[in-house]
Write a structure and sequence with these properties.
single chain; alpha/beta; Rossmann fold; Dihydrodipicolinate Reductase, domain 2; 6-stranded parallel beta sheet; 13 strands; about 20% strand
């Protein structure tokens, strides 16, 4: 059996820890480790990366940008930060987008998608790519996430017994309309302008639900059935994305934000008003799964020629 040497730079963070957990028992992976005293030493981290076949960067944006120039071109890199998602020379790591899987397989530099962005792009990019919806349509998006998406600091805040009362309630943020996921949401989806995007964090650990409405009067000739047919055809045969039939939701009419917790898959639900004049596209998944570490491991498997779903839940 071929054994691949893998290093996780930033293995103490939420995403890094989850990737480590997924890889530590896999016999085809040898995880390289760095001493605690060297964890913040740029040169020693770079030296460790350059001993690996593949490295994950689970770092803040500035730290990811700082270390990339020190990495040997032969080392394959998966960056989970925002730093390189629309950067030249990097492949966006959403394999289910048409043509993307082959690019990931051959690339040495892959950017793992953002969690909110994954939900939006999964719904919008296929419609724009196939010409069903034009790239200048005025998209809006609301995205509900568990607090683990904010990393260790937010997890500690939410799990503190001394937390403020407002943490009991869902909280909208990114209200300056300048969220860091907007560039990839616009660019990867093929839009002329970014969507109006409102992320919301709520008092549950993990799970994400992204909603995108469509006003059909702005899309002459388009019907909810056509949208559903397009998305079904686009993701046909994909193991990690399931498009449910039009109007199929939970029996009680509710969709829980944490329903996808613990999974590395994504479910897409489609609903429409009785007269067909409005439609709602919904992407449901785990912000720690298909929204981060699960997506990263899926891309790693593709890059190393391993079974794509190996190690996924």
């Amino acid at each position: 059996m071929t054994k691949y040497r893998v290093f996780i730079d930033g293995s103490a963070g939420t995403t890094g820890l989850r990737i480590h957990e997924r890889l530590q028992e896999r016999p085809e992976i040898e995880l390289l480790a760095i001493g605690e005293e060297d964890r913040k030493d740029l040169q020693k981290r770079a030296a460790m990366i350059n001993q690996a076949d593949l490295a994950f960067l689970c770092l803040p944006d500035a730290a990811a940008k700082e270390i990339v120039p020190l990495i040997d071109p032969a080392v394959r890199v998966l960056d989970t930060s925002t730093a390189h998602r629309v950067a030249p020379g990097w492949v966006y790591g959403f394999p289910e987008l048409h043509g993307r899987r082959a690019l990931i397989r051959e690339s040495a530099r892959v950017a793992v998608p953002g969690c909110h962005a994954s939900g939006f792009i999964s719904l919008v990019a296929p419609l724009v790519e196939t010409g069903v919806v034009p790239g200048d349509y005025p998209f809006t998006c609301h995205s509900l996430t568990g607090y683990s998406g904010g990393g260790k600091k937010m997890i500690a805040q939410y799990e503190s017994c001394a937390r403020p009362a407002e943490y009991d309630s869902p909280r909208a943020y990114g209200l300056s309309l300048h969220h860091k996921h907007l560039p990839e949401m616009k660019t990867i989806s093929g839009l002329t302008t970014p969507p109006i995007f409102v992320p919301i964090v709520a008092d549950y650990y993990c799970g994400m639900q992204v909603t995108v409405p469509l006003r059909m009067e702005l899309l002459p000739g388009l019907t909810p059935d056509k949208v559903a047919e397009t998305l079904h055809a686009y993701y046909e045969g994909e193991s990690q994305v399931t498009v449910h039939p039009l109007q199929e939701t939970a029996p009680d009419g509710f969709l829980a934000g944490n329903a996808g917790r613990g999974s590395d898959r994504m479910d897409i639900f489609l609903t429409a008003s009785p007269d067909g004049s409005q439609m709602l596209l919904i992407s449901q998944f785990d912000n720690l799964g298909k929204g981060s570490s699960g997506a990263a491991v899926q891309c790693m498997n593709i890059m190393l020629g391993l079974p794509e779903t190996a190690g996924l839940e």
